[in-house]
Amino acid sequence: MQDNINSLVSTKDGSNTLFSQRYNQHYHNPDDGAIDESLSKHIIPTFTFHLNNQDIKELNILDICFGIGYNTFSTIYYVLKNNLKIKLNIYSPELDGALVKSLDTFLFPKEFDDIKHIINSISKTCKYEDENIKIEVFIGDARDYIKSLPKDFFHIVYQDAFSSEVNFELWTKEYFDDIYKLCKDDCIVSSYAVATPIRLSQAEALFCVYEHRPVKRKITLAFKQKQEFIGKFVDMELKKQRNKEAVALYDK
């Protein structure tokens, strides 16, 4: 599969991802594997936090940058595989409407065979809903979309945009200000990004920043309140004192 925007790439765990020629980056790290990356960097840490802190019956999830849908579909796979009695409400912005429309023919891994009907529905209507799952994919600008969402609503945010080098507007202090408003007090924000400027952007938006290593690579977890269950607290004020040149990212 190849067009003038994306080309198909096989990853280490056998699942496929895409290389974006527009952003000159892979949607997932080929050395990690697309489905393994979604599970280890987003789904398992965030669900571990919630399932060990309270009896969760329903989770509202914001999946930043739907892309090929791995984070959303891996979430459903994880819940079904572990027989979790949790209702999922997933909201996700995506700039590339043509990409979403193409997902009914994308070569997904066998782990998603049982949710093919969900993938097809998203591909055709950008929506899916049954008694246990609600998904809404918004085609358009993520910064505009998050301003339309209800405040204090989300339990989980998957912060999974392309890197700040090419997708700068989804890593700034002002962007995280808007994300902060959407988060419940017990919300957890997961991200593959560990760069100090990005963590400073989160900290200046009042998030408490933590480092976690689910497998071989470190990730960043952010919370509205300090916690002691998952990750190691990163003192960003101390980071700034030790590195006077370290600054957050700001809207231009």
Keywords:
globular, 252 residues, alpha/beta
Plain-language structure description:
- With 252 residues, the protein is an alpha/beta fold.
- It has eight helices and twelve strands.
- The protein has helices at 34-51, 70-81, 97-101, 116-125, 142-147, 173-182, 196-204, 236-242; strands spanning 6-10, 16-20, 25-26, 58-64, 87-94, 127-129, 133-139, 154-159, 183-191, 208-212, 219-223, 232-233.
- Strands 6-7-5-4-8-9-11-10-12 form a nine-stranded mixed β-sheet. Strands 1-2-3 form a three-stranded antiparallel β-sheet, with no helix packed on it.
- A hairpin with a 6-residue loop joins strand 10 (208-212) and strand 11.
- Helix 6 (173-182) crosses helix 7 (196-204).
- The chain is globular and about 50 Å long.
- The relative contact order is 0.13.
SSE order and pairing:
Blueprint: E1 6-10, E2 16-20, E3 25-26, H1 34-51, E4 58-64, H2 70-81, E5 87-94, H3 97-101, H4 116-125, E6 127-129, E7 133-139, H5 142-147, E8 154-159, H6 173-182, E9 183-191, H7 196-204, E10 208-212, E11 219-223, E12 232-233, H8 236-242
Parallel strand pairs: 4-5, 4-8, 5-7, 8-9
Antiparallel strand pairs: 1-2, 2-3, 6-7, 9-11, 10-11, 10-12
Compact description:
Helices cover 31% and strands 25% of the residues. The chain is of the alpha/beta class and 252 residues long.
The residue ranges in which pLDDT falls below 50 over 5 or more consecutive positions are none
Instruction: Look at the helices and sheets and give the structural class.
Output: alpha/beta
Q: What is the radius of gyration?
A: 17 Å
Shape: globular
Largest sheet: 9 strands, mixed
Report the strand count: 12
Tally of helical runs: 8
